[in-house]
Write a structure and sequence with these properties.
Oligomer: single chain
Number of domains: 3
CATH architecture of the largest domain: 3-Layer(aba) Sandwich
Number of helices: 10
Distance between the termini: 80 Å
CATH topology of the largest domain: D-Maltodextrin-Binding Protein, domain 2
Strand order of the largest sheet: 8-12-7-11-9-10
CATH class of the largest domain: Alpha Beta
Radius of gyration: 32 Å
Order of helices and strands: HHHEEHEHHEHEEEEEHEHEEEH
CATH superfamily of the largest domain: Periplasmic binding protein-like II
Number of strands: 13
Strand content: 15-25%
Shape: rod-shaped
Helix content: 40-55%
Length: 315
């Protein structure tokens, strides 16, 4: 048995109109085409649905018994079609995503506000994730996507760059360091430093870089959260060594980011998705909004660095 949607529509239309011509007009097809659809349907199910007369088609007992189900199927298909359209147009749907605490408290809020204004009927769930869970949560489909810097590579996910950042010295704007264009890693040993505890990705970068330079690293304060490190720095308790993007969202206007050199060390943020998986329309829209917000914010705050050759640095 092979029944298609147009045959079912023709059956319901002919049953209601009792006439092939009017049914064909309703379906925007020719009368012969409607007749062929009815005959194909009857052949497929092995039952006559209409008795033909010279003026009309009279429904058989089989047609009377089947019409209710046929109409219900068409209604449900119509509702399904409208549902697909709602999802495509973001009038409904779900967005489940994860982010590290630093990303969730810095990049995400403004983007979520704009997303909710545009798509108020989409249900949103934000999961706070540790860096080591960014990839596994996507692979296990706990979330559709995650945002952050994952621990190590994974063959099961794809990374789309979100922010190409670098490690910087973070200090107060009134610190003498804030007037510098760049700072060498070996110079930070001369200053009290606030950093996150061992076990975090950022601390691993700092320890590895200092070890390669053969320099000791003895921070004045070790904390669990980046926001805590920035707050201590803002109160003058030491410099922090962190990605520059954080100063755009925490203590904005009170902290300066000065690029670290010799060596330059990158620390990038990515959108993490399951390999080969298509994103939902809601997820695509959220990422688009997030990227737009980041571009606006990056134009307003750029870490200090070397002046272009041949040009005088602005005061």
């Amino acid at each position: 048995m092979n029944i298609n949607l147009r045959q079912l529509q023709a059956f319901v239309s002919v049953y209601r109109h009792g006439n092939l011509t009017r049914a064909a007009e309703q379906m925007f097809i020719t009368q012969p085409a409607a007749s062929v659809m009815i005959r194909q349907l009857e052949a497929s199910i092995g039952v006559r649905l209409f008795d033909r007369t010279t003026r009309s088609l009279r429904p058989t007992a089989a047609a009377h018994e089947s019409i209710g189900r046929a109409e219900r199927i068409l209604r449900e298909l119509g509702e399904l079609e409208r549902g697909f359209d709602d999802v495509a147009r973001r009038r409904r749907g779900r967005l489940d995503f994860g982010a590290t605490p630093a990303v969730a408290s810095s990049l995400v809020p403004a983007a979520l506000v704009e997303f909710r204004k545009r798509y108020p009927d989409v249900d949103v769930t934000l999961h706070d994730l540790a860096p080591e869970n960014l990839s596994s949560s996507v692979v296990e489909e706990t979330v559709e996507l995650s945002i952050g810097t994952p621990r190590g590579p994974s063959a099961d996910v794809e990374l789309a760059p979100l922010i190409n950042d670098r490690m910087c010295v973070i200090c107060t704007c009134d610190s003498p360091l804030a007037r510098r264009r760049q700072i060498a890693w070996r110079e930070i040993t001369a200053y009290p430093t606030v950093t996150v505890r061992k076990g975090s990705g950022i601390r691993a970068i700092i320890d590895d870089t200092m070890a390669r330079l053969g320099l000791p690293f003895e921070p004045a304060f070790e904390v669990s959260y980046l926001a805590t490190a920035l707050s201590l720095t803002q109160h003058g308790l030491g410099i922090s060594v962190l990605p520059s993007y954080l100063t755009r969202y925490f203590h904005s206007g009170r902290l300066a980011a000065i690029r670290l050199v010799d060596p330059v060390v990158t620390r990038n943020l990515s959108v993490i998705t399951r390999k080969g998986a298509s994103l939902s329309p809601a997820a695509e829209s959220f990422i688009e909004i997030l990227r737009s917000r980041i571009n606006v914010d990056s134009c307003a705050s750029t870490p200090r660095g070397p002046s272009p050759r041949g040009k005088r640095a602005r005061a």
